[in-house]
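Incident log, support desk, overnight shift.

02:14 A customer reports that sequence design results differ from what the structure should imply. Their input is reproduced verbatim below. On-call engineer (initials T.W.) acknowledged and began investigating.
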């Protein structure tokens, strides 16, 4: 891409990288706490829930398919985390990070994020240009 719109592949690679970033934050209470310290006016649990919805969304299977950008294992990892995310997003109370961090649902979300992230880390981030 020179001076024009990025190709569909580049857009998909950028979205894949954002999905990885979303999983990284969701998987790490330390990163969540650091984010909360850096941006105290933001509700980190809400950010985590919203980021996933922004980058994956309800009809994600229409947009992401196994191939060059996403492997079949990565598609399975998205599906696994998405199932937990859907359940937890519906059930978690509106609490600040520290109150939510010790709950079974938040731990379940973090564990699912870590499992999915490990799949993406096999290839790491893809080029964005």
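02:41 Re-run completed on a clean worker. Output:
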């Amino acid at each position: 891409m020179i001076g024009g719109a990025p190709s569909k592949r580049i857009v998909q690679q950028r979205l894949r990288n954002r999905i990885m970033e979303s999983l990284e934050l969701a998987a790490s209470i330390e990163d969540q706490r650091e984010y909360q310290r850096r941006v105290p006016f933001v509700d980190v649990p809400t950010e985590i829930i919203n980021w996933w919805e922004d980058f994956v969304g309800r009809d994600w299977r229409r947009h992401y398919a196994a191939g060059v950008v996403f492997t079949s294992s990565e598609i399975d990892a998205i599906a696994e985390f998405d199932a937990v995310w859907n359940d937890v997003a519906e059930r978690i109370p509106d609490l600040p990070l520290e109150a939510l961090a010790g709950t079974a649902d938040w731990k379940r979300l973090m564990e699912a994020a870590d499992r999915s992230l490990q799949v993406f880390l096999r290839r790491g981030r893809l080029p964005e240009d």
